[in-house]
Specification:
With 396 residues, the protein is mainly alpha-helical. The strands form three sheets. A three-stranded antiparallel beta sheet has the order 1-3-2. Strands 4-6-5 form a three-stranded antiparallel beta sheet. Strands 7-9-8 form a three-stranded antiparallel beta sheet. A hairpin with a 5-residue loop joins β5 and β6. The termini are far apart. α6 runs antiparallel to α17.
């Protein structure tokens, strides 16, 4: 991954671009066995995220209908689009606390509407989006400003909407929902993109926390260490520990700063990459994301080909959860030092939907129990009727 280059070229480039540091090449092949951590694997709004995304997509389809209800035919063929791996009708019936089924006016087709509790949370969700509109715009702006040319294709941003906490219809009318710093542009590959022109200088979460601790003055290049949160039982080999200590002493390059002068094979470039991932996850609602969903960012964010290896090389900063048959990258700091990462305003709403999901489990369990009791009562009644008719009761 990190290969040695001619020392003269390195020194020349460093002197031209930044006289404050020399880019080092001390690559250590970090291989660590994956260590399960039940704490991160049990965070509900992360483990339920994939499920919840599909539920909210269906909820929006119903809530946007003028009548507040839809026939199953309106969504039955949109399962793949909403990441639903089963029949949509069956999926809706799994959540009776959110979706209420009734017989339609024609042809006895099943229709669905939202339950009163779901309607209440939906209204609260819409109010939250209005109240935190400026925060959502700022997060989107930061996300775009971390790209190479301060521009990202709309389809890439739409793919990240769930993580950024942006409503489904937010980017359908960007001229209405976004401020004047955003512009729709045509990109080189023919895609429609969204660019940001902003003179404001943003600071990363790591820089803000360093200022609070009094270890950072706000200059462009300083030696900032990453906060580390080792999992219980996770021990690093001596060679890797020594490498990590040296890695922490390298200059910190903010993801909002120009990084074109960095040699992609240097340790400083890796530290910039780790800082980029840290900042990106800090902007997301759950401070986590499916690792495979981040691969589409490589080209436009200027990330190395195997940037996903950074999650494995830095287990004290990131945890890889293998729940739900996928690999989810989690920012440890957000859950170990909750005061250091700003909580996303939409997280509270998602937790309310998750509580409704748990209510559905209870409802379905009670239904099964009731059906079982009814079946038993009917069996007893049939048994008594046979006896009353004078028929001989078979012996066991």
């Amino acid at each position: 991954m990190f290969l040695n280059t001619a020392a003269s070229k390195i020194l020349q480039k460093c002197r031209q671009k930044s006289p404050f540091f020399i880019q080092k090449f001390g690559y250590v092949d970090v291989y660590m066995k994956w260590k399960k951590d039940s704490y991160y694997d049990s965070i509900e709004h992360i483990t339920k995220s994939i499920e919840l995304k599909s539920i909210i997509s269906l909820k929006n389809c119903i809530a946007q209908d003028p009548n507040g209800c839809i026939p199953i035919s309106a969504v039955s063929k949109r399962g793949l689009q909403m990441d639903i791996s089963m029949k949509v009708a069956r999926f809706l019936r799994l959540y009776p606390s959110i979706f209420e089924e009734f017989t339609g006016p024609e042809h006895n087709h099943p229709w669905f509407r939202l339950t009163p509790k779901a309607v209440e949370i939906d209204a609260e969700e819409k109010m939250s989006y209005q109240n935190c509109r400026e925060d959502l715009i700022c997060r989107l702006k930061k996300f775009i400003l971390m790209s190479k040319n301060n521009v990202l294709p709309l389809k890439i941003i739409q793919g990240m909407q769930w993580y950024l906490g942006i409503p489904d219809d937010f980017l359908q009318k960007p001229e209405v929902n976004l401020d004047g710093s955003f512009k729709l542009v045509k990109m080189e590959d023919g895609l429609e993109g969204l660019s940001v022109e902003c003179e404001e200088k943003f600071m990363s979460a790591i820089q803000k926390n360093a200022i609070k601790r009094g270890v950072y003055s706000g200059r462009t290049i300083e030696l900032l260490e990453f906060p580390l949160f080792p999992s219980k039982g996770l021990r690093l080999r001596r060679k890797i520990e020594d490498w990590l200590k040296e890695f922490q002493k390298l200059p910190y390059v903010s993801p909002y700063e120009d990084f074109s002068h960095l040699d992609p094979n240097s340790d400083i470039a890796e530290k910039r990459l780790v800082g980029f991932i840290h900042e990106m996850l800090s902007l997301f609602v759950e401070h986590s994301a499916e690792r495979k969903k981040l691969l589409c960012l490589k080209k436009y964010m200027g990330l190395p080909q195997k940037f996903h290896k950074a999650f494995e090389r830095h287990p004290h900063m990131f945890y890889l959860s293998l729940k739900n048959k996928t690999c989810t990258a989690i920012l440890k700091e957000a859950y170990c030092d909750k005061s250091s990462i700003e909580r996303h305003p939409i997280l509270r709403i998602r937790r309310k939907y998750i509580n409704l999901m748990k209510e559905s489990i209870v409802i379905l369990k009670n239904r099964r129990l009731s059906n079982h009791l009814v079946h038993r009562e009917n069996s007893v009644l049939d048994f008594d009727l046979d006896a009353a008719d004078g028929r001989e009761i078979p012996k066991c």
